[in-house]
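Target protein
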Amino acid sequence: MDVKETRKRWGLVCLTTLIAVTATWLYQQNARQSLVEMIQQMEGEHWYRVSLNQQAVGQYRTAVLLDRTIRFVTEMRFRLDSKFVTHIEEVHVFAAEPPYQLIRATHTQRRGPGHNDVLTARVLRDRGELYAVAPTGARLPLTTDYRLTDHLDIEMWLMSDSPAPKLSRKTKHIDFERLDIATKVWSIVERNNQGYIVRSANELGFAEIQLDPKFMAKAMVDRHFFLDRVTDEAAASIWRQRANSPHHPDFSISTAEPLHNPTKLSRLVLKPFGKMPWDDETLLVGTSVSHIKVDPNTLASFLRETLQHPVSDELITALANAVAQETTSPIKRAEALIHFVHDYLVYEDLQHIQSVSETLSRRRGDCSEFAELFTTLARAARLPAKTIVGLAYDADNGVFAKHAWNEIAVDGLWIPVDPTWNQVRADATHLRLSDETMAALDQSSMSFKVVETEYVNAGS
């Protein structure tokens, strides 16, 4: 089997996260100003250079435009391992009069050769109510309102309270990936001679921002990406001087001895050695039997249409109904969808990130395309599902490599499945990792020692 090195995908996750967490921090001004005065002083644009592991890979622009409305624009262009540039833009438009309600917001991703793969999501207001519009055109009601005071909530908190280190505050933001309004917690790390350092963390990782004495963002960093403020577009655009981003060799982790019959493993315990993103005493445990319980409060979100999962697409709906119509249980439904995706797509290493719609059209992709298509079809078939990333064992080459697969919710547990490898129960070599750890692996150099193995059938 071929397991594609998927570093560019985790980079895209990190960069889109940076757009979300940076937007509200780039416009802060002096304390004790009124909201109107603060907005007036925001007008204009700022440029930032985007670096990955100390190498320029993109540029970031923010702008505040005032006319009959108040518009916040954030725009990022970057190129990772692929030769293709990815362009992400978000626009938030607010009324210029109290109560400063959100009028509309737009998120657009342009990717691939000639930017021919475009995803656009919107948030619109109709008769006083907000709803999200998916790329398919589906309308998804939002459960809460969103105003300028929500967009600038942290700014107002810093101005009015001058919070001490370790204090935190929960804020609302528009999550375009999930097509919903979500919350984020920001914490004060410290006050230093440059201003504030603030931090936010979630399942995707963390971000820290250094604010200057006027509360303007000077720099932002997570484990790998770094944004630093520069004087103009020319300074931000030095990444374009390279014809292409440097090629990074495929990432893999070897074991002292090849794993015997890995697809029959029900439990696997590994000890990592070398330069790694874990403590020295860490053991990695994989199992084909899930012990992760489903949270009933969040279950509905794994049936929801998102920016990446066009659940209401006509072809998706037709395929899901055709494949799952004669199944009698969730497991049988999942099994039918796993076999369908495995047979429907031809495996191909891609040089750009591909949407589910393009995957349906081309019927080709790597493990990420297999997993994202399965998530979409499963949700359309009313089977809660999500895409998982981590490491899995490439038996053809005798190494662990980056991989994507799925989990489905059945009988209160998250069950791992793998449509790329046609596994109804993903074997125990599938090691689920966070996006942050996945990105950190690129700076690692390690090997695994097998500590324990258990097989589905004794004597295998």
